[in-house]
Amino acid sequence: MKYDFDAIVERVGTGCSKWDGLQERFGTTDVLPMWVADMDFPSPEPVLAALRRRVEHGVFGYPLVTQGYLQAAADWYRRRQGWPIEEKWLAHAPGVVPAISILIEALTDPGDGVLVQPPVYYPFMRVIRETRRRVVENPLRLEDGRYVMDLADLDVKLQSGGVKLVILCSPHNPVGRVWDREELRQFAEVCERHDVLIIADEIHGDLILPGHRHTPLASLGDRVAERTVTCLAPSKTFNLAGLQTALVVASNPRLREAYLAAQRRRSQAGANVLGLVAAEAAYRYGDDWLDELLVYLQGNVDVVVSTVKAEIPSLSVVVPEGTYLVWLDFRKLGLAQSELDQFCLTQARIAFDEGHIFGTGGQGFMRMNVGCPRAYVREAMDRLKRAVNALSVGV
Description:
This protein is of the alpha/beta class and 395 residues long.
């Protein structure tokens, strides 16, 4: 089947954060929204068909997390990522961020250090602080336009920082790195040497651009899996974020039970009946749609990269290897952070996620969401080009 990712779907007035939340988030609606990480594409037709059938049934009582759903999820990750998950390792979650919050409470104590690798998905820092743990930073290094882990610094921080838990973002949001197997092996070795546990946020693990391959951290072997809890979801892959369905994977029964116990204490074990239906259909029948999507997303990335290179040389792009997020470098413009924020909103009239909200190393950058029809991407690049050109001539 050929999907039309160029089709424009009107989202204004549907109560969506990305479009209807512009005034609250940015103080204006006169901007092109390319910020929050959902896509402007309809979900795959098999998902929509499954939802229609369930809605027509008309009764929406308390659902079960069925064995069929868990099997479909396990089969997906075996098939797509080569990771032999067993259904008994899986537990439901209402979302990856809620799962991470529960896991922090389950696996650490107040005052413990939880390490992150900024610039990184900003809710990590929020949930660490809100659970009364300490944020410990192991900043990524930008080398020749590509981010790498600072493993020497990681070793120091784990040795001296009172760290009990590390959150790995893989693929990395916002910088788009797909960590290769050797990088992950070395990362895991450092964590094992200091006996720290790992939460692997792999929500973007299906969104791998051509030429790259995602390696699930826990697939590296039993010793790594023993200390790792992986958070997964169909939400980014199939644009199902509003249906609040995610998975926690732990082959170590002690870690899995700790998660489940903390989930029960919070009374967060309930599932969304439509989310379960949509996720199962996506995992069973979503391969073709995803394959076409990845080619389309690469085309959108290419538009951004080629336009910056040829027409906006004062900017640069950290070329993503995965996700539908592009990390744009504005530092050559020489603007203070508040000036850059206002430049993008008022001169370019684009709503990006500001780089500084992603923590250390994010200043001077913007995160651009290209999970949208190409017409939006081209319009954004035209706006950026005009705004930068006007800035350079002092208009």
